[in-house]
Structure formats: structure tokens, C-alpha cells
Amino acid sequence: MRGTAAALPAAAGLLAALLVWALGATLVEPGAWARLFAARPGPTVAAAADLASMVALALASTAAWLSWWAAPDHRHARLLVGLYASGGFWLLAWSVLLFRFGRPDLALLAVAPVWFVLVALVLLTRRFAPWAAALLVPCLAWMAAAAVLTLELLPPTGAGG
Questions:
Q1: What is the DSSP-derived secondary structure letter of residue 98?
Q2: Measured between alpha carbons, how far is residue 11 from residues 3, 17, 18, 117, 143 in Å?
């Protein structure tokens, strides 16, 4: 995908990444975890979750660029764009359901597709972009931690039904 023919798709990819970032920034502002965990002890968990989510997004964005740049052909490049777009959609869905609508029960449903996409990207890119695949592993760990934190936000079901 290198060369002058890659300039337009690279510019379009950069523009798309900036638009997704701007959309995410308007939907979920820093400190969202702190508000959700306000009634619970341990603001350190909320601060760590905010930081971890920012780092994971930066790693995933870097992985997207590295893997697209190293894609061996246009078929792989199109598949990567589709997978990253799908992962971004489900991640935004999780964020909106959890932070905007306060629905951890529904947000948990969006975690599985994000995980599936991340695993598919690691498996796809490990041969031609091993650094990109390696950068996605911490994103998998973050999504597992985010799922646990989301699960902790579910209301108690009560004893004995």
C-alpha cells in the first residue's frame, strides 16, 4: 500500500480517525468513569479506567495505521478498514449505552463484538504487521477490564429472586 497511490486513502483514513475521535469526545468526556463510580469507594479505579481507555484508543489507532500501511494488497486493506470501522462502531455503541444512557446491561452486549473484531485483527495482522498485532493485545486486555467494570455497575439482583 506504499507509494503515491496511497496518499489519498491515507488522507481519508486520517480524516476518518479524526472524525471518530471528535464524535467520541462529544459523547464521552474525561471523567465519565468517575461519575459512574461516584457512589462507590475507590476513585483511583475511575482515574485508571479513564487513562486506560485513552491509551487503548491511541494504541488501536496506531495499530490501524501500521496494519493498513503494511497491508500486502488492496483486499487486505479493505478488510482492515471494515474491521476497524466495525470495532469503532461497537466501541462507540458501548460508550453511548454506558455513559450516555446509563445502561450497563445493554453496554455489556456491545463488548463481545469489540472483542471479536480485536481478535480477528490480531490474527489477520500478525503475519504482515506484527507490531500492529502486538499493539492490539493491550486493547484486548482493556476491553476485558472494561467489561468487568461495566458488570460491576449492574444493579444488584437481590437474594432469593
A1: I
A2: 13, 10, 11, 24, 28
